[in-house]
Amino acid sequence: MALSMSIKYKLVEYYELGSKRVESEAWRRRALDPAGRGAPSPPSIWTLSTAPSATIHSNPPVFQCGVGHVICSSCHGKLLDTSRCHMCSRDGGYRRCVAVDHILYAITVPCPNAAHGCAARTPYHDSHGHAAGCPHAPCFCPEPGCGFPAGATAALLAHFTGTHGWPATVMWRRRAAVGVPLQEGKRVLSLLDDDGRGSHLFLLNVAQAGEAGLVGTVLAVEAAAAAAHGHGDAPRFECKVSFDRRGTGWRQSSTFGVRSTNLSGGLPADGFAFVAPNPPPAAASVTITLFDISSGEPGSALRPVLPRSRRSRTRLSATTTAAAAVLLR
């Protein structure tokens, strides 16, 4: 990780305090390199960026030789001989440079997602670690060729409905069930907390699969890292799609874990979660129910539990779903 100029200025202060120690004539004699080209200039902040890789790539600890030449832990681990300083060839190896460590730990930087609502300031050396799991990381538009810049889900919701004209349906957390028309295309689902403050963005995508009928899936649109935060690889939400084709007696439902994505690579092309027969014109609809299963409590109010026999009858087989996905390839 390259040092910014502000951080370099702070480290300069540290080296100025110790300049008298390193500028002694004894140091100059010992600092002569094996080729005899003369003594290098006294150590400065720039010795941090003249390590073998030219930049600091790793977290503290930082090391220094007996003279004061500094090297980051990443470059220190790449040295073939750690018993000699890489700058002045002085024997004695390296020891921890606690002063620089403290400076690096104390320097904080704003999150790169500050423009999207993140107010966190993180230690400089761990800024990438925070960004990888930041819940304010931007999401993207999946439409090919769309020029929408990456943004927060609120901006993405307005873009979906305003620019692309995708219909939107509002769902409430404690009553997270809604009926929508069963038709090819995309529909935005906005799940709101009961107080109307927090919200989650979902995308219903339905496609034609020829004689097999319609196939579809529901995706949670959020930063991929944030989606997995605290839940490992397990989905945070579960979805139940129920279909009732009036006049034919056809009833079915499918329950599946909702995949989370930031849509940076477009819509996932490796599978659909439910299959429904081709509906007559303007006649069919599906009921979509969302459950927050992150608490791990199957009996919670957000996840009604069906009798086992009923669950077994209503789940769509994975074989049928996989077959429908193949039809779209």
UniProtKB/TrEMBL annotation:
The record's keywords, sorted A to Z, are: Metal-binding, Zinc, Zinc-finger
Q: What is this protein called?
A: SIAH-type domain-containing protein
Tell me the domain of life: Eukaryota
PANTHER family, A to Z: E3 UBIQUITIN PROTEIN LIGASE SIAH, RING-TYPE E3 UBIQUITIN TRANSFERASE
State the organism of origin: Oryza meridionalis
Q: Does the keyword Ligase apply?
A: no
Cellular component per GO, a single term: cytoplasm
GO molecular function ontology, one term from the record: zinc ion binding
Which one GO biological process term can you cite for this protein? protein ubiquitination
Please list which residues make up the signal peptide.
Answer: none
Using the record's annotation, list all stretches that form the SIAH-type domain. Answer: 106-165
Question: Which PROSITE patterns has this protein been placed in?
Answer: ZF_SIAH
